[in-house]
């Protein structure tokens, strides 16, 4: 119980510090870390995505999404998303014996929806 109280108090302190920097990149970085951890936890704990490269790409893409609201133009988001899907499909082609298409689509869906949910 003591461990949970200490962790909760530490979390509140971190939350207050992050909210103090609301309109800066610090806030986006904090949301990116949380989004990356959430994507990793969902994909890794279910055991559905077994390819480590696909898992790494999904976490990296999930961490990049919170920074897109700082851009004035939406084209970089579009290009990075197309590149991400191309990399996932390339991983599917390279490891087609072990990796299933549903694994790729699940990684793409989770890495897009979870960070957007934090927005």
Task: Give a description of the structure.
- The protein has 5 helices and no strands.
- With 119 residues, the protein is an all-alpha fold.
- α2 packs antiparallel against α3 (52-64) and α3 runs antiparallel to α4.
- The longest helix has 22 residues, at 25-46.
- The chain is flat.
- The two termini are 32 Å apart.
Q: Which secondary structure elements does this structure contain, and how are they paired or packed?
A:
Blueprint: H1 2-20, H2 25-46, H3 52-64, H4 75-94, H5 101-118
Based on Cα principal axes, name the global outline: flat
Main sheet: strands, sense, barrel: none
The SS-based structural class is mainly alpha
Mean pLDDT: 86
Distance between the termini: 32 Å
Tally of strands: 0
Order of helices and strands: HHHHH
Helix content: over 70%
What share of the residues does DSSP label as strand, in percent? under 5%
Q: Indicate the radius of gyration in whole angstroms.
A: 16 Å
Question: Keywords, please?
Answer:
mainly alpha; 119 residues
């Amino acid at each position: 119980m003591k461990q949970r109280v200490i962790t909760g108090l530490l979390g509140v302190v971190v939350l207050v510090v992050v909210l103090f920097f609301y309109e800066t990149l610090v806030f986006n970085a904090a949301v990116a870390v949380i989004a990356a951890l959430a994507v990793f936890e969902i994909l890794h704990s279910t055991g559905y995505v077994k390819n480590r490269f696909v898992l790494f790409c999904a976490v990296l893409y999930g961490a990049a999404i919170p920074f897109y609201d700082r851009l004035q133009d939406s084209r970089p988001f579009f290009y990075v998303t197309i590149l991400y899907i191309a990399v996932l499909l390339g991983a599917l082609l390279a490891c087609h014996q072990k990796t299933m298409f549903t694994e790729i689509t699940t990684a793409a869906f989770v890495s897009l929806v979870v960070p957007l949910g934090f927005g």
